[in-house]
Specification:
The chain contains no helices and 7 strands. The protein is mainly β. Strands 6-5-4-1-7 form a 5-stranded antiparallel sheet, with no helix packed on it. A two-stranded antiparallel ribbon has the order 2-3. Strand 2 and strand 3 form a beta hairpin.
């Protein structure tokens, strides 16, 4: 039997402190900045999430403006990530694409 192993290596993490609101349908919380990374949880619809870092990862279509967004936000105090494209709020000093 073969098992997938995801190793968390996230280069260029920018430390920040901000919050954003999850999309009305809720959002997946992942173990890494990839849509292929395991889902480790789910944020409730319109839940306020606190973040302590951001970096670039897989690009995801923004839920509100329908453009690509490669930013991923780390949930404060964890090593878990949410795609910027599915929360309403932006990390200070960030842009959707590198």
């Amino acid at each position: 039997m073969m098992h997938a192993l995801f190793v968390l290596f996230v280069p260029n993490i920018r430390l920040v402190n901000f919050s954003a609101i999850a999309a009305p349908e809720g959002v997946n919380i992942r173990s890494a900045t990839s849509t292929n990374a395991p889902i480790v949880g789910r944020a409730a619809p319109n839940q306020r999430l606190n973040f302590d870092a951001w970096t670039y990862g897989d690009s995801v279509q923004d839920r509100w403006i329908n453009t690509p967004d490669a930013r991923w936000y780390r949930i404060a105090g964890t090593n878990n990530w949410v795609a910027s494209a599915v929360v309403n709020g932006n990390a200070p000093g960030s842009s959707p694409r590198p």
